[in-house]
Design goal:
Layout: E1 6-10, H1 18-30, H2 32-37, E2 38-42, H3 53-61
Parallel strand pairs: 1-2
């Protein structure tokens, strides 16, 4: 059986929500059932490079 995993990014322009985004990421990555169907992506987990955020998001999807 093939299971398609849905990728979603956890994003916000608010710096004050950085802790909440990290907590949400950790919760989602720690739940075995959610991991079967979803993969979370947090921009803060990726080192800064000379690429736009939308380019990085597209690269992650492929």
């Amino acid at each position: 059986m093939i299971i398609n995993v849905v990728l979603f990014s956890i994003s916000s322009v608010q710096k004050e929500f950085s802790i909440e985004r990290a907590v949400l990421r950790d919760y989602l990555r720690g739940d075995a059932l959610i991991l079967r169907f979803f993969e979370s992506f947090l921009f803060e987990d990726v080192p800064a490079v000379c690429r736009r955020a939308d380019e990085l998001d597209l690269a992650k999807k492929h």
